[in-house]
Amino acid sequence: MTPTEDDDTTAIPTAWLFTPGTDPEHFDVAARCGAGVAILDLEDAVAKDHKDRARDSVIEHLKTRDVGDVRCAVRINPPNTVTGLRDLLALADSGVAPDYVVVPKVDAAATVDIVAEVLADAGLVTGVVAMIETAFAATTLHTIIQDARSPIAALMYGAADMAGDLGAETGTAVLAQARSACLLAAAAARIPVIDTPFFDIGDAAGLGIDIADAVRSGFSAKAAVHPAQIAPIVERFTPSADQIDWATNVVDTATGGVGTVDGQMVDEAIARRARRILARARR
User: Where's the HpcH/HpaI aldolase/citrate lyase domain (predicted)?
Assistant: First the structure.
């Protein structure tokens, strides 16, 4: 199921911070560092023996949290595993819904539908974020999106698992191709895409390059694995005053057909990008 043509594909928070589900004393870090979404992780960040404890901590947080500007997401384990089913049923039984459920290793539309429909049956409304992190998903993504009966709030590209599935190293062309496939399929369906985290926490320069590429490539948001990564993500995804002025002039000019802004020809095609900039600015 895809959004309508009028939907704003940038309309999700720009910075998503992963926090291990075993670390409840840091569940509020996302709010303190300026992230738009706190992703409480029950999957990769939690050892097998600690899954039950993490699940209990996350459910307790959902029941007691103050709902404010920072949204809460829960990344469950894959729903085709016993642990993932326990995560899903625990959310359903809790009576409280996070703003988003992040579903890892989505390879079929049925995976999205199971999560959405189980929660809906419990009377809970939440956005489903489908993680694309396998070669199969990257090559069948259009079908996954079109066949899903339930809305997909966003896609999240998972580079680490994708690299493992492909047997590829970071920065290789095949990973770039998988990333592009995710962007293309999502753009065709007008679904926002969240870029994978930058995992080298100490490389500030590399993070800046990575964020800049995500913005230029058309990602609507980026995930992070450390609070220090949030401010650069928010800053780069927030249009500057010059960008807002340029976009405003382009949109105004394009309403009359072809024109020029700063000596460059602009038309409706350029105006579409300008409107995305203005939509980000409004957030």
Answer: 16-227
